[in-house]
Amino acid sequence: VFALHLVAILLSVAVAGHSQIRRVPAAQVVVVVVEGVVYCQNCSFRGTWSLESAATVAAARVGVTCLGRKNQVPPLFHFLINSSKVIIRRTASTDAAGFYAAGDFYKGDPARACYVRLLASPEAACDDPTNINYGFKGAALKDEGKRATAGLHDIMIYSAGPLAFQPASCASMQ
């Protein structure tokens, strides 16, 4: 499943007109892929960070945001400049197993500059975002040492802790 997500991300990055990226030395710019899983927290554990008995959420949307200094990113992203920071945003939807992957070219330390937030759940019975692993405020990325190469690009794969929505009301579900 991950391999299919990675191929789709690389194709979308390559097709999206990133030809200017090639002017930056390959050692300075990598493709960063962020992966994770989204759950619906069981009502029995509401108010905790427990995901025991949680179900995955298909078609949930998450947002990946990366911040960086103007001189730390490829020229293609300079149109996103806001003061001295550049903001790179990508959204991803989870697959049938609740897994998501989003990626783009980036220069810098994604573990320090990027985060993931819950955006939307398609399940009306479970669409209240929780702050489990800071999914509401912004979950930090973890470098688990996963690396790959595609063509001339190095790929660094980061993960965010599992994120979760919860039912807005549990009274009818218990």
From TrEMBL:
Q: Does the keyword RNA-binding apply?
A: no
Transmembrane stretches, by residue range? Answer: none
Leader sequence residues: 1-19
UniProt feature coiled coil, ranges: none
Report keywords, A-Z: Signal
Q: Name one GO cellular component term.
A: cell periphery
PANTHER family assigned: OS01G0164025 PROTEIN, OS01G0164075 PROTEIN
Q: What is this protein called?
A: Non-classical arabinogalactan protein 30
Origin species: Ananas comosus (Pineapple)
